[in-house]
Predict the 3D structure of the following.
Amino acid sequence: MIPGDSAVFAPGFFSSSTVHTALVVGAIVSVVSGVVGVFTVLRGQSFAGHAFSDLGTTGGSGGFLVGIGPLWGFVIAGVACAGALELIGVQRARGRDLATGVVLGAALGLGALFIYLDTTAASTTGVTQTVLFGSIFAVSSSALPLAIGLGAVATVAVLVTYRPLLLSSASPELAAARGIPVRLVGALFLVVLSIAAALAAITIGSILATALLIGPAATALRLTRSPGRAMVAATLLGLVITWLSIVLAYDSYDWSASGAGWPVSFFVVALVLIVYVLSDVLRPRRFARRGRGTVHV
Amino acid sequence: MPEPRKTDASVVGVLAAEGVSVRLSGRQILDEVSFEIAPGEFTGLIGSNGAGKTTLFRVILGLQQPTAGRVLIGGRPRSRSSQSIGYVPQKFQLDPDAPLRARDLVALGLDGQRLGFAMPSRARTQRVGEMLKAVDAARFADSRVGTLSGGEQQRVLIAHALVSRPSLLLLDEPLANLDLAAGQEIVALLARIAREQQIAVLISAHEMNPLLPVMDRIVYLAHGRAASGPADEVVRTEVLSELYGHHVDVLHVHGRVLVVAGSSPEGALIDGDQPHVEVVA
C-alpha cells in the first residue's frame, strides 16, 4: 500500500519536510515531557511548570523581536525563571500567591508588549498565534539541532541523576541524611524543567505547554505505580498524542472547502484530555486505591 | 581528649557524643551533651518540644556542625559517605498519586545516593523483599507509599533505613503521628530489630511512657542539656531537677511515669501528657 493513497494519511504527508520536522520535534518533546513530567508531578512542581509557561510567552515573543527565534527566547526566559524560583525557593514561591501572581502578571504584561511590537513594528505575522498557541508546523528545520541538543541534555541530566533525584523528590530529609546535595539537585531539576517547558512551548505554544508537560505524565501515573514504568508510559503516550495530532492536523486541510487546516495544538490538547479521562474510566481495578490504605492515622 | 581508636564498633560503642554544643543565632540549643550507645541498645531520646532533639539528630547525621565537641560513629568521626546510620525522619509526606511503591523506596535505601539507575539483580530484589518481610510490610510492598497509613509508612521507612545494614538507626518522633495501637506495634518491631540484628536504636519522643518497657537507656534532654543512663537511674526527682535547673517531681502513677514541674501552682505537666491523670503538684 502506498501511504500517500491511504485514507488516514493525506497526499503528500510523507514527502513534506514540514511534517518531517514536526514528527522529529514531536518525538523529542514526548521523550523529554515523559521523563521530566513524571518527576514534576512527583515533586509537586506543576506550579513551576505553569510559571515557566507564563514567562515563556515573554521569552518567545522577545525572541521574535530580537530575531533569535522563539525557541532561544523560551529557553532563556525559562532558565532565568528557574534561577528566580531557586532564589525565592520553589515551595515558598508557590505558597506566596500574591507576590508570585504579581511578578508573573508583570512578566506576561511584558510579553503583551513584545507581541504588540512584533506585530506592528516588525510586521511578523502570526507571532501571537505562534507564541501563545504554537504550531509544530511552524518550527523551522534550522531549529532542529538546537531542539535535539536541548532534549538530549534534559533527558541525560534526569537519567544520570535518577536515584538522587528520585530520593530527594520523595523526601528531602531522607536524601539529605544520605549526603545528597538536595538543593543542588533541585536547582538542576528546575533548569531541566525549564528546558522541557521551552520544548513543549514551541510545540503547542506557551499557554498550552503545561498540558503536554503534565498531561501524559499524569495519565501514566494512573496506569502504573513504579517511577521507571511511568516515564516509559508517559513517553509513549506523548508520542501517540503528538504524532496522531500531526496526522489529524495535516488531514484537516481537506476537511473544509476553504482548505484551512485546524491547529495542531488543538488536537494535542484535545487528545491529552481524552486520554486522561479514558485512563480514569478504564483504570484497572487493581490500581484503585486500597480503601483501608487511604485512611491516614 | 581520647585518641580515636581503630577498634571494632562492638567494643567502642556505636555512637558517642562528646561534649556536643550547638549555638544557633545566639541561642544555646545544645550544651555539652555527652552520652554513649552500645550495639543493640534501645535508647530513647526524651525531651519536650524545643529541647534540642532534632538539632542533636542533625549533628549525628552530619547536617549540623557542632560549635564544640564531636560525635563518633563506631569510634570514628562521621564521614560524609558513611552509610552506618539509618534514618527515619519525622516529616514524610507523599502524594497518593506519586509513582513510588514501597519496594521502590526500600530499594533507594540500598544506594539512593548513587548516580544513574540501579541495575536490576536478583540479590537486590531478594534483599528488598527480606527487609519488607522483616518489618511486616510484605503485603503492601507493591502499593504506592502515598496511599499507605501512617503506621504502614513508618514500617516502609524503617525498612528503607535498615536495608543497607547500618549499625545505628535514628528515628525522629516516629510515634508522633500514630495512634496508640500503631505506636505500640512500631515500638515492639523496633525492639525486636535491635535485639535480633544487634542494631542500636535511638528514638526521639516527647513522651517516654510508650518506650519505658523496652528502653535500655534514656538520654533525657532539657534546655539543651542531657542526662543519660538506665531509665530508673535518670528519671528521678533529683536528677531531673538538676537538669531542668528547678525542682520537678517524678511521679509513678499506675505504672506510668509523670514529670511534673513542682514550683508552678498549676502543676504543669512536663512529660506524660495523659489526660486521665490528675496531677497535684
User: Anything to note?
Assistant: Residues 249 and 260 of chain B are 5 Å apart (CA to CA). The longest strand of chain B covers residues 27-37. The helical segments of chain B are 9-12, 53-60, 102-111, 122-134, 150-162, 180-197, 231-234, 237-244. The radius of gyration of chain B is 20 Å.
